[in-house]
Amino acid sequence: MHLEHDPTTSAAYPISFNDFLKVDVRVGTIISAEAYPEARRPSIKLAIDFGESIGVKRSSAQIAALYMPEELVGRQVAAVVNFPPRQIGKMISQVLILGFPDIEGRVVLFAPDQTVPNGARLF
Asked: Kindly report the CA angle at 65 between 48 and 61, in degrees rounded to 5?
């Protein structure tokens, strides 16, 4: 029997703690941000510093509805750093920036409420 599951409207299926540990979520500081008009949805190209062990990674995020590129530089964000790189339009996205949808479905960035070292891992 196949059960349909929509992760945007219901809780996900239970996983083990070891499954959770496979997803490497780290914090980094945005060092550059620019509009990405070539993307299908309004997006911003980001370069994020994840510290010495991971380095600077690039990403495209569909956050242009709520954020201007110039206000993002210096902000910390959380991202999955161990997914394979993915082609997004003309660029390669190396990490998946994390966010939550607001009431209108726009992406609100997920970040620590205090500054933490770049590269710190979520646990």
From this structure: 30
